Amino acid sequence: MIKETTKQDESTRLKSTMKAAVLTEIRNIELQQREIPTPKADEVLIRVQAVGLCGSDVHYYEHGKIGNFIVEKPIILGHEVSGDIVKVGENVTDLKIGQRVSIEPGATCGECFHCQEGRYNLCPHVEFLATPPYDGAFCEYIAMRADLVFPIPDSMSYETAALIEPFSVGVHAVSRGKLQSGETVVIMGMGPIGLVTVAAAKMAGAKMIIGVDLEQTRLDVAKEMGATHTINLRKENLEEKVREYTNGFGLDLAIETAGNQNAVQGTIASVRRGGRVTIVGMSPQDEVPMSISNIVDKEIDIMGVFRYHHTYPKAIEMLANKEIDIEKIITNQYTLADTAEAFEKAIHDKTNTLKIMIYPN
């Protein structure tokens, strides 16, 4: 059952269908009519306002799979979401119609070992938006479990609220890397995840933040996100510049976000003895050669990062203070009807494209 409707959700009550951008086969997205979902007792219905286009969305669009996750039937992509609550399930007491919200896209079981341990990002039963077989948010309305829906301040835009999801990856990467105020960090790859990780490192109090990439335009944005130094690998040598910037000592922490074999190897070379490495990016090669002698001799701690946990309240608070304008990573904006064009833009213009934002309503 659903709570009594008000004027605020009257338009939803009168409509039964919505528009959705549906991936029907590889590199083919169709605008279709779908039934507006009915929220369960513990869910809310959200009118979607902004959705970020993620690299994983592009991978499903272009290849039809990521690892063991295979698109076997038409799917709605998109998991970086913000919007407005328009209906509330009968058991939901801490949310209300009209609230502007950011959405955590992974519904975990809450009962397995990992959920009970507090690392629910490792839950094997997670139902994650836009990960086969679960539909995502490139549509006008979605129903979400209430505990995954977080109100945002009136001063926060829908765009920033949608970017809470990728920013959470950066927050978790910095946390896994145990970055302390006053420490030094290098971040490999200045794509959207690398850039928001720069912002997270800045807010964590890092003294030196080095952004590394092949594209100068991305390095320029990295400076706006909080990087103190940059290294352009087309012109500069990573190890030489790290020695120069750290007086030969090396860095406390290296974070790899590029999903690149050379970047993984660069993290090992960049950190000091006793340093730490955090790997976020997923390399196309399942196995990447690394210098075991370097890892052992320098006694390096290496950590993997898978999504995030318990980041949303903190991330919303961090971005609400406007210390860093996270929206500087947004380079393109499209309507829902132009979703297919947005995907093609992401594929064919990687140099000039960072984060694409899509507006279903």
- The residue-averaged pLDDT reads 95
* N-C termini distance: 26 Å
The CATH H-level superfamily of the largest domain is Medium-chain alcohol dehydrogenases, catalytic domain
Q: Decide which structural class fits the backbone.
A: alpha/beta
Q: Radius of gyration, rounded?
A: 21 Å
Could you give a short account of the major beta sheet? 7 strands, mixed
- CATH topology name of the largest domain, in short, is Quinone Oxidoreductase, Chain A, domain 1
Shape-level CATH architecture of the largest domain: Alpha-Beta Complex
Strand content of the residues, in percent? 25-35%
The coarse silhouette is globular
Any idea of the CATH class of the largest domain?
Answer: Alpha Beta
Work out the helix count: 12
- What oligomeric assembly is this protein in? single chain
Domain tally: 2
Helix content: 25-40%
Number of strands: 20
